[in-house]
Amino acid sequence: MNKKRPVNLDLRTIKQPLPAITSILHRATGVALFFGAVFALYALGLSLESEEGFNAAVDMFENGFFAKLIAWGMVSALLYHFFAGIKHLVMDFGHCEELESGRAAAKVTLGLAAVAVLISGVWIW
């Protein structure tokens, strides 16, 4: 291995292509969904405890700012992860693997996810 080759490890200066960004976001939303499941399981457990627990969970989601924020974050991550997963499935079947079609698919994924996240924000808030 040539030790004289330049190595750029400054992530602020590396220019990632759009398909790479969508793929990285797909993985990040998967991790966010995994950790967000803790909140969802807590709310589910609280709601199944008793009638008072159910009322507390409903009140938490209706009046709690942070609960709504977390719920919107979870729904947003789920929506993006869904659309990016569809893009990855299409690519697994051999479509949109070229440079230009990959960029177009990434743009469509980001656009659909942005619209869905905005609609879910209106619905939750």
Summarize the SSE layout with pairings.
Blueprint: H1 18-49, H2 51-63, H3 65-92, H4 99-124
Helix pairs in contact: 1-2, 1-3, 2-3, 3-4
What is the compact description of this entry?
With 125 residues, the chain is mainly α.
What does this structure look like?
- The chain is mainly α.
- The protein is elongated and about 65 Å long.
- The model has no long low-confidence stretch (mean pLDDT 92).
- Helix 1 (18-49) packs antiparallel against helix 2 (51-63) and helix 2 packs across helix 3 (65-92).
- It has helices spanning 18-49, 51-63, 65-92, 99-124.
- It has four helices and no strands.
Helix content: over 70%
**Strand proportion:** under 5%
Number of helices: 4
The radius of gyration is: 20 Å
Name the overall outline: elongated
> Residue ranges: pLDDT <50 for 5 or more in a row?
none
Order of helices and strands: HHHH
Helix/strand-derived class? Answer: mainly alpha
The tally of beta strands, per DSSP, is 0
Major beta-sheet overview? none
Average pLDDT value? 92
Tell me the span between the first and last alpha carbons. Answer: 56 Å
Task: From the structure above, extract its key features.
125 residues, mainly alpha, elongated
